[in-house]
Amino acid sequence: MNKSDFYYELPEELIAQDPLADRSGSRLMVLNKETGALAHRSFPDLKEYLRPGDCLVINDTKVLPARLLGVKKDTRASVEVLLLKRLEKDVWETLVRPGKKCREGAVLSFGEGELEAVVEGLEADGNRRIRFSYEGIFEEVLDRLGQMPLPPYITHPLTDKNRYQTVYAREEGSAAAPTAGLHFTKELLRELEDQGIVIAPLTLHVGLGTFRPVKTENILDHHMHAEFYSIPAETAEKINKAKADGSRVVAVGTTSTRTLETVAGEDGTVLPGSGWTDIFIYPGYRFRVIDALLTNFHLPESTLIMLVSALAGRENVLHAYQEAVKEKYRFFSFGDAMLII
Fold first, then answer.
1. In the Cβ-directed half-sphere of 155, how many Cα atoms lie within 13 Å?
2. In a 3-state reduction of DSSP, which class is residue 238?
3. CA–CA dist 132, 116 (Å, integer)
4. If 28 and its partner were Cys, which of 41, 139, 229, 233 is the partner (CB 3.0–4.6 Å)?
5. Does a structural domain hold residue 79?
6. Which residues are CB-neighbours of 302 under 8 A, at least 6 positions away?
């Protein structure tokens, strides 16, 4: 199966550069995964497609303001550091630009010296291992100095950091937002619960793989980066009860989907626990847990559109995307939503 099998033409003006004033004000395309039939709705209409007892699985990861702009202490040359993964208390795996100027031993300074870092070494894939020094609490320093690590296709500045967080974000550790969840307001979640929808949180910290394109033509040659997940016992119980009762498990986002499909047994039973996943889902995959998926519109030839195609069929998905372009839906992180059901 080739990367080019998942290509579609997208006019640049359809890439959403800013979040809507109203989180739930986006459009909602509904795709029937069996027939390919489409419906054009508004996001709050999600309530009409969910039934009492359905289990809505959300990813409660919280995005770190992980983009740091600073200088090399000796030359004052500008540097940009993106925090990827915490290795120890003050040691992080990072992506550094320009990397060639930040060799082992280089000292970096941020916020007029409020935060400093030493490059301790290189990882196998070219990322830098950095040790930070500061006074106080690292997360508070980072909140003052860091910026949200927006995807490269978003060129407008983000005026409110909270708009790149879900309203239920709780567990800090992501380098990117689980964007399907950005559409929810606290009021809409309460309405769903009042309707009898069971809401089950899990955590998957979104990592560097979100930003990395598929570079190999044969998709089987693509390597997924591992991301940390955690599933509480209560969440596993809710999901397993929904399955046992004949209700549906509706994943909010590809991150929730990948987590559930990682931990599921052959019979679809979800076990609580934590670990790392590098699962790559593409057409031909047999889903064990999820019955439906709420997601955004994804980049051409990305692992995310491949996952969506595994659930709904490549032809159905590409046809839906063609219709979305025709109807001028907003694409990617701050864009509109799709419900595959």
1. 4
2. helix
3. 6
4. 41
5. yes
6. 6, 213, 214
Q: Which pair of tokens denotes residue 113?
A: 């010296």
Say how many domains are in the chain. 2
Instruction: Say if 155 falls within a structural domain.
Output: no
pLDDT at 210: 63
Query: 252-299, pLDDT tens digit by residue?
Result: 999 999 999 999 999 999 999 999 999 999 999 999 999 999 999 999
Name every residue whose Cβ is closer than 8 Å to that of residue 158 and which is 6 or more positions away in sequence: 147, 148, 150, 164
Amino acid residing at 330: R
> Is residue 184, in this structure, part of any structural domain at all?
yes
Query: Residue 6 in contact with residue 323, Cβ under 8 Å?
Result: no
Nearest-angstrom CA–CA distance, 289 and 230:
16
Q: What does the pLDDT read at residue 126? A: 81
The percent of residues in the chain predicted with pLDDT above 70, rounded, is 99
E strands, the chain, in order: 27-31, 38-42, 55-59, 61-63, 67-72, 78-86, 91-97, 107-110, 115-122, 128-134, 171-174, 198-204, 227-231, 249-252, 273-277, 292-296, 337-340
Q: Strand 55-59 to strand 249-252: parallel, antiparallel, or no bridges (unpaired)?
A: parallel
DSSP label at residue 182: G
- pLDDT of amino acid 152: 86
Give the chain's mean pLDDT: 95
Among the listed residues 155, 152, 72, the one whose alpha carbon sits nearest the alpha carbon of residue 110 = 72
What per-residue confidence (pLDDT) applies to 154?
A: 93
| Domain final residue pick, 90, 111, 145 | 145
Of the residues 101, 116, 145, which one is the last residue of a structural domain?
145
CA distance 143 to 172: 12
d(Cα 71, Cα 12) in Å, to the nearest integer? Answer: 33
Q: How far is residue 329's CA from residue 27's CA, in Å, rounded to a whole number?
A: 7
